[in-house]
Amino acid sequence: MTPARDVDEVEARLIAARQETGGAQTLEDILRRQEGLPIDDSFRSDNIGGDAVPPPNLAPLGTSSDPDLWRAIRYDRLEDPTVSTHTEVGAVMIQSGGMRWLEFRAGPLRTWGGWLLLGTIGLLGVFFLLRGRVRIEGGRTGKTVTRFMGFERFVHWMTAASFILLAFTGIFTLFGRKFLIPIMGHEANSILLLGSKYIHNNVGWAFMLGVGLIFVLWVWHNIPDKLDIIWFKQFGGIVGNNHPPAKKFNAGQKMIFWSVVLFGGSISLSGLSLLFPMDMPLFNGTFLLLNDLGVPSLLGRDPLPVALAPQEEMQLTQLWHAIVAFVLMAIIIAHIYIGSVGMEGAFEAMGSGEVDENWAEQHHSIWYAKKKAKEAEAPGKAHPAE
Fold first, then answer.
1. How large a percentage of the chain has pLDDT more than 90?
2. What gap in Å lies between CA 369 and CA 360, rounded to an integer?
3. How many alpha carbons lie under 13 Å from residue 41 in its C-beta half-sphere?
4. In which element (H, E) is residue 316 found?
5. DSSP readout, 220-233?
6. Rounded alpha-carbon distances, angstroms, from residue 162 to 157, 167, 201, 206, 317
7. Rounded to 5 degrees, what are φ and ψ at 343?
8. What's the pTM?
């Protein structure tokens, strides 16, 4: 039997079943809805009394209830409803997109996001077992050179600490119902998530400030150049024994920088939209622009919706916020690995700000040469701590 014939037979069976119920919902409808399959619910959506306006004695949200009225509300066919809040949000009383958001959040987002983080940690673990730690060639000299000043290190650690807090509180919020409640119980999980909410909403300001300061401090050192191609060809010295020349930041660090700036900036923008949803809707205007540019048609898709309810704006924003956060978390996990167990001497750059001269020459030879040349031009200055 061909797939087309299968579809025709299913449709014929559904039509016959609906005729038996006089056009009302059937058992087949209920089973298909439970499986997440589409159904023909015109038996409900079209049964609103001929138009979407209730009789005069059944004003919207009055004390009386009428099946036609509530079906009109359910399918957003009630014209100009009056609500006590007098707000656009209050006028959206039933929003079907909430179920799609909930299913995506509890399904693909949680599944793929979790595996991305676990997979990143697993791959780094395997890489460490195969490669080991990148050692300082020739050992330490005992002489150091200043890599980062105090304010630079403050900005780095403020951004890093706030991001880690945001990451953990976000993970608790997303995974708490599935993994934490069975371990901690409902009450303890509730207390944890309430605290996570306050931390997430307030620490976010420090992260946004940090992303902005990182951009201002280091953008000129992170503009791509031809040295980056050499760095990638030699795998940054992490794979193999070659150590390509680099300025203050090598190509790998530039990737981290732009990831923090672009992904961190996007997370910050979507976070602001979630904090102030009525003042900063993101997707309606974005979808309108993409439609005007013809992007959906180029991809063979229908135009994107541009009449989004405020709730839909928040749902899409929350999903975007979480997806981009998962990507940045995976990148930062790799960054933490390189800056700690992956490379000898790397942590000291943001720890004390002083790095061993052999480390500097090995990983940032061009920057180190310029640094030593400047020191030689100013003999009266005190030599960095040794």
1. 55
2. 9
3. 13
4. helix 310-337
5. GG----HHHHHHHH
6. 8, 9, 11, 6, 21
7. -140, 125
8. 0.78
